[in-house]
Amino acid sequence: MARAGPTTLHENSMTKLSTTPDGKIFDSELTNIFSIMIICLNLKERETQRGTFSFTKTYPYSFQVANALSVLKVLKFTVEQSKTVTSMEYSINPELGFALLKKFYSGHFLHAPADRTRSEPNHSVALQPTPKGTCILQNFAERVGMDVKNYPPILFSNFNSMYLLKFDRDPTSDKILYSKYLINFIFITMMGDSPRVWSPSAKAESIPPIKRKLKLGMWQDGESSDEDSNLNSISSTNSNIYITNLKNHYKISDSNQEIGLPDFRNASTSSIPTTTIIDSESVAKFPFHHKYFTNPESDSHVQYYISSSGVRVFENKQYYFEKGGGHVNIPYSFTGKAILQWLCDCTEIYNPNQGIGIANLLLKLQLVEPIISKGSKSNCDSFVPARNAYYKLSKLGETICHWNKPEDDKRRPKEYEINSEFNGIGTGNLGDSQASKVSVNLATTLKDPGLRLLFKEHLESEFCVENLQVYQLLKEFHSQVKTCRIIYLKSKESDNSSILSMLNKKLNDLETMACQVYVNFLAEDAPHVINIDFELRKQAIEVMDKIEDTEDDETAIERRFHTLEKKSKVFFGVSKSIYALLEDDSLPKFLESKIFNDAMATLDALSI
After folding, report:
1. What is the set of domains in the chain, with CATH numbers?
2. Alpha helix stretches (DSSP H) within 347-424
3. What's the predicted TM-score (pTM) here?
4. Which part of the chain is the RGS domain (predicted)?
């Protein structure tokens, strides 16, 4: 890998863990450490060689705890993007390292393939990334601009089958930002389009095509020459990788199976991805799947490998109500454990307590209700995440749930126009029965965590989510510039060394943010280039391509601050341009989209 040299625009090095004011490690920092650990472990699909015999069963992409602790002790990762070099380096002692492994395990990043019901790791068991952990790894690789050709092999395997429901977080406290509709959206997604009733004869669920999951370009049909291959960009992440080379290297096929890492036909373990025939089509079967994998009574540490699969439910389960009710069959019911299991497997929460918090909000908004029967541990006061705590849909939950509704009835909105008003969104008290009136415009869409999540999904389907990403980054950038300006003015009034140190750190952070925005979205060779005016892009290139004299003298901080102000002024123009594009082009399409119409139908139901 090339080293930083005279043409390097910025070199950023991160060596300390980011923490909240109360000392808690940011969840985003945990995902960074986890992802770098998996990359540094260099996990492979392991096979038993022909002609050899072993009593030890092997599992693909697995590793020993001792190896992970050794890697964590000296954890290094470097990624280059155009003229920037970002390095992450941590030194984590074995005690903290094992505590982190426990966090990764409880957050369902990892599981023990040889002991699927194990609740926590120990030093003697092999560990393996889960579908959630693999998705987190992909999100990290995309976020830091990692070259697709350098992706870990597990990302090209059937382990990479999950789309996680993501949440925005408070930049200071790291707490999840909620709104009333966000909770409703989580509820609808968790329930799925129809009840997921377990049966030992149930067909395996197909997983998404790997080329779609990795956002790869369209595959060529038929044979192509080497000269033709360089005309086919593999993805927006790296336009210099040829489709043909990648397909050959990872044995990616154009069939429904989509991926076949090194010749699974000769593998010796049942944990390696296979295929099954479903409705006359060959589809990939998930590596962990087995007959009782999705049984609601299962104690498996992980139970979901695709997020579109709803929570596991019982059908016509009989409950006994002691106070005169007698025996009653409830059409569909589910356990508190099943709810927490889905939230831990299929969303971007990093510890079970966050999942319990979301489940409590489902109760508070009266989307589910406890079954107060003999043998059930559920109650009306708080959510109980136990296998013998039973719940069912409330009347409101039945109204907005998609179960047993015709496809065209699932998205049956009223007519809404830009700036029209509707009920149901609120970022304050989630239990407030007085639904606030909110105008459907870009400002309120971006402010509400639920609508913002829907807007992002719409933009992803339109292949222009980078516009929202760069706008949010620039919004945070300008907020931090204001803070930096205050610190700078204080430093002018005093020669206090602590203030100068604070200013220097803030300048380093902002220079890094500016370079990330520029390299990823504004540079001529940016992997996620955005559509802005030519003159505006020219200004951004001029202000960013100027390599500053890094000689440390009395005026160094002064020069850096004024350069930052120039960058901020140009970036503000970019931010205004992107906002106008989102407002004039993307928002009207969003308001006409199925996903928004579905939201409106749900809000209509809530106002009944």
Report:
1. 10-160+206-285 (no CATH), 410-608 (1.10.167.10)
2. 352-364, 395-400
3. 0.75
4. 441-600
